[in-house]
Write a structure and sequence with these properties.
The protein has about 280 residues and is an alpha+beta fold. The protein folds into two domains: about 80 residues; about 130 residues, OmpA-like domain (60s Ribosomal Protein L30, Chain: A, 2-Layer Sandwich). The protein has nine helices and four strands, in the order H-H-H-H-H-H-H-E-H-E-H-E-E. A four-stranded mixed sheet has the order 2-1-3-4, with helices on both faces. Helix 2 packs antiparallel against helix 4 and helix 4 runs antiparallel to helix 5.
Length: about 280
């Protein structure tokens, strides 16, 4: 009887061992899980290292990290490949969303700050007494960006040179650069195009060794047109960049770039359904 019991116990142990072996994941499943979790972890780490994410999208980053932890648990505890890869994918997407939202919110703040500095500069220009500050207020109009392009117009070189000179002569000043488009194109596309136009001016100033910390960028897209968008000439005037140079005490200079006819100050416009202008 004892022998029978021992045999039964041995058979049960062997069955349990065999059952345990049958649940071991396949090598291909292990590789797939490791890849999914690794990719998600890399995406979460990249988002976490972005200071904009910590400032503007911390809750989205937390959700991404939580999904990554769930993916790891699904694999380590249950070897559930389907659930693991699904949760890892969610973590990766949430990390990407966190970075996108952070960049959008950071850009919105830059535009808000730039607009506030511009308004302050304009106010100071209107109220300051040149005799007291010694500052000059200069305006210059240039000519239009090509439709759908962010490359500086050919006749912008002199204005960029004058602007760089103004900034060098006023080392405490800052420059606010705002890009505009005409009304052709979608809202989001036009905002991006306008920002690229402002960035083109920034890059030109950097070649003159202007401190990048003195340059603020903004995108107004198709808003505030200075001319009618119903005509080619009007749309050309609206494809521009407006620049305000603000000193420590008053405006040191202001210029606008964007039309092909050497006119004075302009503003922008946009909208529509096909590629932006």
């Amino acid at each position: 009887m004892k022998h029978i019991i021992r045999s039964t116990s041995g058979a049960l142990a062997a069955a349990l061992i065999a059952a345990g072996c049958s649940t071991a994941p396949k090598a291909s499943d292990v590789a797939a899980a490791d890849s999914a979790i690794g990719n998600a972890g890399q995406a979460v780490d990249q988002a976490a290292s972005d200071p904009h994410v910590a400032k503007y999208a911390p809750s989205e980053l937390e959700r991404a990290s939580a999904s990554l932890d769930q993916a790891k648990a699904a694999w380590s505890k249950k070897h559930d490949l389907q659930t693991t890869t699904h949760l890892a994918y969610i973590a990766q997407q949430r990390a990407a969303t966190a970075q996108q939202l952070a960049n959008e919110r950071a850009s919105e703040e830059v535009v808000t700050v730039a607009a506030a500095e511009r308004d302050h500069a304009v106010h100071m220009a209107a109220t300051a007494k040149p005799a007291a500050t010694g500052a000059e207020v200069a305006q210059e109009g240039l000519a239009g960006f090509a439709s759908g392009k962010a490359r500086l117009p050919p006749n912008s070189a002199r204005a960029i040179n004058d602007l760089a000179t103004t900034l060098k002569d006023n080392p405490d000043s800052k420059v606010v650069i705002e890009g505009y488009t005409d009304s052709v194109g979608g809202h989001d596309y036009n905002h991006g195009l306008a920002m690229r136009r402002a960035e083109a001016v920034r890059k030109a100033l950097l070649r003159y060794k202007i401190d990048p910390g003195r340059i603020l960028l903004g995108s107004q897209g198709e808003s505030n047109p200075v001319a009618s968008n119903d005509t080619p000439a009007g749309r050309r005037e609206n494809r521009r960049v407006e620049i305000t140079v603000a000193g420590a005490e008053s405006v040191a200079g202001a210029s606008q770039m964007g039309s092909s006819q050497g006119s004075t100050a302009t503003t922008s416009s946009g909208g529509g359904g096909r590629k932006g202008q």
